[in-house]
Amino acid sequence: MASKPTIGVFKFASCDGCQLSLLDCEDELLAVAGAVDIAYFPEASSNMRKGPYDVSLVEGSITTHHDAERIQKIRRMSGKLVTIGACATAGGIQALRNWQQTDVMVRAVYANPAFIKTLEMSTAIAEHVPVDLELRGCPIQKYQLVEVVSALLAGRRPNIPTYSVCMECKRRGATCVMVAHGEPCLGPVTQAGCGALCPAYNRGCYGCFGPMESANTASLDSQFRVLGQSHQEIARAFRGFNAWSWPFRKASEFAEKQ
Fold first, then answer.
1. Quick one: angle between helices 246-257 and 217-226, nearest 10?
2. Confidence band of 30 (pLDDT split at 50, 70, 90)
């Protein structure tokens, strides 16, 4: 009988929310656990076995020299490497420091800054090693994670949407908050995955799932101006959980320079 595919789950700079999404799968996780061998998952078990692993799920961004070395080792021991969450795919909320002088921030926060060793920027995993698949979200959507694992086991392409949150709004019958209430919303340029959670409660989308495929941020910038948003407010809107993703980064820097 062939052995089960092995999975390793790894953490870098992050809040652990995406790993908790895996644990929140409950019944679905039991089905996954029956089909795979979860060999390394410190968040869930003290029974940790060395690689190689058929699939590695990686949460968190690279922020230290140790991180940069460790992700290289994980890549070498992984058949497929899947990054999960905004930190791993776009540097996370901690990437906001990328627009500041890191040494100044370290001195302001830590009593003994000389002991702090960190990289100048917080960056996505893909900026350091080849990545086979990126799963967006802050946190990820648990059913999308199950779909990714199932697809990898079956040798097929995962069915993950690349269209915008606006499509999810229409499917659930939610009123467009920009049209009806003049509320700034990143939904038109954000990848679907949350089920249009915020717009369903009359709040603008915060862009938790990062930029959609071919995101037209310039058009949304213009619409935000029509709504009376200042350049600073537009820049801040794009500097959230996925601020360092290229489309959002470009949009925020363009607004900031106006």
1. 40
2. low
The ranges assigned to domains in the chain are: 6-154, 165-257
Residue 41, phi then psi, degrees to nearest 5: -160, 80
Domain 6-154 fold: Rossmann fold (3.40.50)
Cis peptide before 52 (omega within 30 of 0): yes
**CA-based angle 249:253:257, to the nearest 5?**
175
**Per-residue tokens: 245:** 């993703």
Q: For residue range 188-235, what is the model confidence (pLDDT) as tens digits?
A: 999 999 999 999 999 999 999 999 999 999 999 999 999 999 999 999
pLDDT in tens, 96-151: 999 999 888 889 889 998 888 899 999 999 999 999 999 999 999 988 988 998 88
Residue 164's contacts (CB-CB under 8 Å, 6 or more residues apart) are 187, 188, 189, 190, 191, 192, 212, 215
Within the chain, where are the H helices?
A: 17-23, 27-35, 65-76, 86-90, 102-109, 142-154, 165-172, 177-181, 197-200, 217-226, 231-238, 246-257
Please name the residue that has the structure tokens 């290289």. Answer: 72
pTM summary value: 0.92
Q: Which of 226, 230, 231 is nearest to 257 (CA)?
A: 231
Q: How far apart are CA 238 and CA 253, in angstroms?
A: 9
Helix intervals (H) in 42-101:
65-76, 86-90
